[in-house]
């Protein structure tokens, strides 16, 4: 069952990844993600169906447009393969639980936001805000199936706690933390809180830890200065992933260390 689920999620990730390429390209520009159909930006020819197969088409075409031979960025197959891997790993970690669709959706959102934030230093409301609604509906459905209303209450606390934390940081140091980060924090808090207190706390802490370590490394290698703008969204998303994967184990280890476990 688990192997079939992981494979199905990987295939789903390839298909969704192809659409996310459109999202990453068009949303920052304020364009529609449904029309017009995808076309080569150089010659304007619409992509044929056989040229729109995730990863495989790019390999067959050797990274070039069929019509004008303009290069096609390797970002496209990498994002498709990355989405497939992330959805497969999400299914492998959580298994066939009612909340899995909510976290698969969050994983897709994470891919799009990471790509956009790295390139444009933005976390678009067009992606983040609707994700609150989708995530809430999926988590409410999962809680109803399991009659687990405590997890839903924890999700609400997690949403409020991380939103308030990041809002306080944004107000305390204007320019240091963007309000896009504040909005994303609430979304991540909702999902992490649903899983438990340990994923919530570890996920929140890990974002600052990883972000700090990367910042120090960039300064040490002179790839960034003290005033350089470094997008924090990817670190928030990576921290949330760590909270899901190792949160309970790290929390239990800490409790044992201080003699409370």
UniProtKB/TrEMBL annotation:
<keyword id="KW-0645">Protease</keyword>
<feature type="transmembrane region" description="Helical">
    <location>
        <begin position="127"/>
        <end position="145"/>
    </location>
</feature>
<keyword id="KW-0489">Methyltransferase</keyword>
<feature type="transmembrane region" description="Helical">
    <location>
        <begin position="97"/>
        <end position="115"/>
    </location>
</feature>
<dbReference type="InterPro" id="IPR010627">
    <property type="entry name" value="Prepilin_pept_A24_N"/>
</dbReference>
<keyword id="KW-0812">Transmembrane</keyword>
<feature type="domain" description="Prepilin peptidase A24 N-terminal">
    <location>
        <begin position="11"/>
        <end position="92"/>
    </location>
</feature>
<feature type="domain" description="Prepilin type IV endopeptidase peptidase">
    <location>
        <begin position="105"/>
        <end position="216"/>
    </location>
</feature>
<comment type="similarity">
    <text>Belongs to the peptidase A24 family.</text>
</comment>
<dbReference type="InterPro" id="IPR050882">
    <property type="entry name" value="Prepilin_peptidase/N-MTase"/>
</dbReference>
<keyword id="KW-0378">Hydrolase</keyword>
<feature type="transmembrane region" description="Helical">
    <location>
        <begin position="232"/>
        <end position="251"/>
    </location>
</feature>
<keyword id="KW-0997">Cell inner membrane</keyword>
<feature type="transmembrane region" description="Helical">
    <location>
        <begin position="192"/>
        <end position="220"/>
    </location>
</feature>
<keyword id="KW-0511">Multifunctional enzyme</keyword>
<keyword id="KW-1003">Cell membrane</keyword>
<comment type="function">
    <text>Plays an essential role in type IV pili and type II pseudopili formation by proteolytically removing the leader sequence from substrate proteins and subsequently monomethylating the alpha-amino group of the newly exposed N-terminal phenylalanine.</text>
</comment>
<protein>
    <recommendedName>
        <fullName>Prepilin leader peptidase/N-methyltransferase</fullName>
        <ecNumber>2.1.1.-</ecNumber>
        <ecNumber>3.4.23.43</ecNumber>
    </recommendedName>
</protein>
<keyword id="KW-0808">Transferase</keyword>
<feature type="transmembrane region" description="Helical">
    <location>
        <begin position="151"/>
        <end position="172"/>
    </location>
</feature>
<dbReference type="Pfam" id="PF01478">
    <property type="entry name" value="Peptidase_A24"/>
</dbReference>
<keyword id="KW-0472">Membrane</keyword>
<dbReference type="InterPro" id="IPR014032">
    <property type="entry name" value="Peptidase_A24A_bac"/>
</dbReference>
<dbReference type="InterPro" id="IPR000045">
    <property type="entry name" value="Prepilin_IV_endopep_pep"/>
</dbReference>
<keyword id="KW-1133">Transmembrane helix</keyword>
<dbReference type="Pfam" id="PF06750">
    <property type="entry name" value="A24_N_bact"/>
</dbReference>
